[in-house]
Design brief:
By secondary structure, the chain is of the alpha+beta class. Among the domains are: about 10-45; about 100-170, no CATH class. It has four helices and four strands, in the order αααβββαβ. It has helices at about 10-50, 65-70, 95-100, 155-160, and strands at about 105-110, 125-140, 140-155, 165-170. Strands 1, 2, 3 and 4 form a four-stranded mixed sheet that branches. The longest helix has about 40 residues, at about 10-50. The radius of gyration is 45 Å and the shape is flat. The model has no long low-confidence stretch (mean pLDDT about 80).
Length: about 170
């Protein structure tokens, strides 16, 4: 009768070879990791470490150039000093006051009669408000204020009876 508990030697040898190759690979990668860590440490030291260029403390003392100040004001301790402090309010409406004397040109932007129709109900639009923008126009040897007025329209019928009121502004 044969012994069935006998283990084959071939798979054990394969496993031992595989284990040895993996151990050598781990050793190689560990050595590579140490090399990279050292390179990183050296670059950090080079970037953030102390510099080899040291300054001489005597070099920072520039007493040679202070001769003019010393001779010009020999005794400043004896003179009294006064301190002045105040608060100032910002002036309002200064631009409007400056623009009063300039000639003014007004450009009005209105919708035509055909465009003054409500997009919801077809009713007539009325002037609701205006948007005014002023700009300063400088022409050589001539300065004037140009006022742009855009009319804004809405429908009275929709204001009273609808939940949504269309508002149209002239281009």
């Amino acid at each position: 009768m044969e012994n069935t508990t006998k283990t084959p030697t071939q798979p054990i040898e394969n496993l031992q070879e595989k284990c040895e190759s993996l151990e050598s690979k781990v050793a190689e990668l560990t050595q590579l990791l140490k090399w990279y860590e050292e390179q990183f440490r050296l670059s950090q030291h080079k970037r953030f470490g102390s510099s080899s260029e040291k300054t001489d403390p005597d070099q920072l003392e520039l007493s040679l150039f202070n001769e003019a100040e010393v001779e010009a004001a020999p005794n400043l301790e004896g003179t009294p000093t006064e301190s002045i402090s105040y608060t100032r309010r910002k002036k309002r409406g200064q631009r409007e006051a400056m623009l009063e004397d300039l000639p003014m040109e007004t450009v009005e932007y209105r919708l035509s009669e055909d465009e003054q129709v409500c997009s919801c109900c077809g009713g007539d639009l009325h002037e609701m408000s205006t948007e005014v923008r002023q700009e300063i126009q400088v022409i050589p040897a001539q300065v004037k204020v140009k006022r742009h007025v855009r009319y804004v329209y809405s429908c009275r019928h929709c204001e009273r009876e609808e939940t949504q009121t269309p508002i149209v502004t002239a281009p």
